Hints:
The chain is an alpha/beta fold. It folds into 2 domains: about 5-35; about 50-164, 2,3-Dihydroxybiphenyl 1,2-Dioxygenase, domain 1, CATH 3.10.180.10. It contains 4 helices and 8 strands, in the order αβαβββαβαβββ. The strands form 2 sheets. A 4-stranded mixed sheet has the order 1-4-3-2, covered by helices on one side. A 4-stranded mixed sheet has the order 5-8-7-6, covered by helices on one side. The protein starts with 6 loop residues before the first helix and ends with a strand. Mean pLDDT is about 75; it is low at about 35-40.
Amino acid sequence: MRLPAGHAKRLFLGFTCSIMFLIVLALLIAYNTEAESSSFIKSSIEDYPFTINIPTAKPELTIAFYRRLGFKTADALSSGLDVFSMEKEGTPYKLEILYKKFPAKDAAKNSVSGMSFRVGNLEESVREFEAKGLRFIERRGTRDGVTYASLVDPNGISVKLFEP
């Protein structure tokens, strides 16, 4: 059977366009699937404008303390065996608990001196955290028009909760 003149070219062109369409469609599906799955895990520094490194000689106590503050393990973010990453949903904070060979005296001098977290209702937050076993040094203070409560983590780092 012979095709009329020009039909073979049209069939070839139609077949080629169909293959190209399927390739583009497959690429779009693959890109969209990757974009959707990556939105569930924060994995880049852009997702965390505030990374707080906490060197410690007491990793178990430090991790338990920040879990009571609402931070959760962020396994995908841990950069090594000596770093335990934590995150709190709805905040831009990422904590990195560093615990390789930090004697207690060196951990404190290589650390941040304090950090503050904004809460919606200070009194309610203090009650909630006290129920989880956290002890506040100061339950209610005021400075520069900001009401706050203070506690200290196992490494001596001052943690303030504040309500504007």
